[in-house]
Design goal:
Elements: H1 8-13, E1 21-25, H2 31-41, E2 45-48, E3 55-58, H3 63-76, E4 81-87, E5 98-104, E6 107-109, H4 114-119, H5 123-131, E7 142-143, H6 149-162
């Protein structure tokens, strides 16, 4: 094997790829109930408030884990849809660097074009996905992994009493209930 004193191999490799990142846009208006639902559904991540609803930044952004989280949360949020945004390589060779998936009732539904979704995201959400903003640095962020199921159920009960249609501390679906 020959040496590469000029560094040609590194040049051909291109710039380093950013770590995969996955976000789930929820219709929940507040971060704490979104984090609580994640804690009960065993989805690890940090919920942050945004102008479009609570956004969950997943701890595990690998493709299969992100899809599992989208299915799980869309099942738990009875009747509500969630949008999974994922930055990173995909098993689909035709997929862009950013992929968009919609989930409702645990099923993947037709998705929007990534460029359309990105163009309409608030800057805060775009920074979480593309600029590497750490979700824990966002004011109002709630780490789902820091909540016990009992504390999560209490948060959901309080939120449900304030807003009809919110889940009341119970998990609605999934295979591991």
């Amino acid at each position: 094997m020959s040496e590469d004193p000029a560094g040609w191999d590194a040049m051909w490799a291109g710039p380093p790829q950013p770590e995969p990142r996955a976000l789930i846009l929820t219709p929940m208006p507040l971060a704490a109930p979104a984090a609580a639902l994640c804690a009960i559904a065993h989805v690890a991540g940090v919920a942050v408030p945004s102008p479009v609803g609570a956004v969950l930044v997943l701890d595990d952004a690998e493709e299969q884990s992100a899809h599992d989280a989208g299915r799980t949360l869309s099942t738990a949020m009875v009747g509500a849809a969630v949008v999974l945004l994922r930055r990173g390589p995909s098993e689909d060779p035709a997929a862009a660097d950013v992929q968009v998936y919609h989930y409702q009732r645990g099923m993947r539904t037709p998705a929007s074009a990534p460029g359309l979704v990105l163009a309409n995201l608030p800057v805060e959400v775009e920074d979480l996905l593309l600029a590497g903003l750490d979700a824990r640095d966002v004011t109002g962020a709630v780490d789902a992994t820091a909540l016990s199921e009992e504390a999560a159920a209490r948060i959901l009960d309080v939120a449900a009493s304030a807003a009809p249609g919110m889940p009341h501390g119970e998990y609605h679906g999934g295979d591991d209930t």
